[in-house]
Amino acid sequence: MIEVRDLHDWPTTEAEAVAIQERLRPLVRTDGEPAEVRTAAGLDVDYRESSDEIVAAVTVLDMSNLSVVDSAVVRGSAYFPYVPGLFAFREAPALIRALQDLAVVPDVLVCDGQGLAHPRRFGLACHLGVLTDLPAIGVGKTPMGHYDPPGEQRGDWTSLDLDGDEVGRALRTRTGVKPVFVSIGHRYALQSACDLVLRLTPNYRLPETTRTADHLGRQST
Questions:
Q1: What is the sign of the dihedral through the CA atoms of 31, 28, 139 and 144?
Q2: At which positions is Mg(2+) bound (predicted)?
Q3: Which residues make up each annotated binding site for Mg(2+)?
Q4: How is domain 31-220 classified at the architecture level of CATH?
Q5: Average predicted confidence (pLDDT) for the chain
């Protein structure tokens, strides 16, 4: 079972949430990677008709063939308000419950969202990585920061910069298709994170981790 470190209470105000991000940010590690990535978890949250009703879905993929070997779904409510830069406080509680329901402990968490590509360098991938102390990366659909378009070939990339810092990469996962935005969450070097994303995108722009978790969440009623 995935263990979650008791590092903070869940806040009720924006000021409390920002203070938690500032306090936990120094715990993020931006180096290393698992000795071998055999399994990767995809994490996704689906918002239902009510903006506060959410379905958190986690799938675990076997990296040898990208098949789903474990999954979990948690339905609940997002108790924290919708505030840019603080999405983790809406989504992380339900995602953590889903992670704890898994029978397989994944080697890496692949979040549908940001890691260091965040105003306080502490997006969802950082938050979940620090709380679980599992390697984690963020793969966003939209950029948080500035980038020049990478080359058109699969594997081409350019730096993603925010306030003068490199916070990730714009990575082309399909030739001629718009890039995804990879950033470190925890215990994963940026180049290794991009290599992993390319392994997870043999056929589509988005990683299979994200695609399978998204599908599971949408199909759950």
A1: negative
A2: 44, 112
A3: 44, 112
A4: 2-Layer Sandwich (3.30)
A5: 96
